């Protein structure tokens, strides 16, 4: 039932929005969107963001590592649960496999697996949600990158617009859960940490 509903969403008016966002923007924009939509870019951004978070957080090393660990947990949660639970449950086909050839532009490789939610969007919005805990500037920068990546997935022809919206929402949820979990574990560790002996 869910699969039938989600499969029919694009036939109710989403295809025109997909084609508008998938329109030819020229070679420079094509190259940029293909780049930010690639897996190497995602891996490089995650590493860079971990370094920036560690530098932005004030306090002892353990406090910095707490947020870096939350970043990793958020990505694992959004990507793992998204691919193993949500996509099989919703079972929506990518536009590059659902639309007739020649009616859209397909610029990046994508396997014929579930389209909803976009895990690129989910992972980048999860990272942005964690980065926001390190400071507003870093959070806004990460949000800007997340929006660009989400748009790129439609631009290169491998996701519907609602795929990336759902992915963004899923990523924010995972980012918040990871932050709360990291805070809870940090508090437990602080309580169990032996008190420093009094100096004579």
Instruction: Give the radius of gyration.
Output: 20 Å
**Percent in strands:** under 5%
- What would you call the shape? elongated
Order of helices and strands: HHHHHHHHH
Mean pLDDT: 89
The profile of the biggest β sheet is:
none
Structural class: mainly alpha
Task: Report low-confidence residues grouped into runs of 5 or more.
Answer: none
Total helices: the number is: 9
Structure summary, number of beta strands: 0
Terminal CA distance reads 71 Å
Q: Please estimate the helix content.
A: over 70%
What would you note in describing this structure?
The chain is mainly alpha-helical and 200 residues long. The relative contact order is 0.17. The longest helix has 32 residues, at 161-192. It has helices at residues 2-8, 14-21, 27-36, 39-56, 61-90, 95-98, 119-131, 136-155, 161-192.
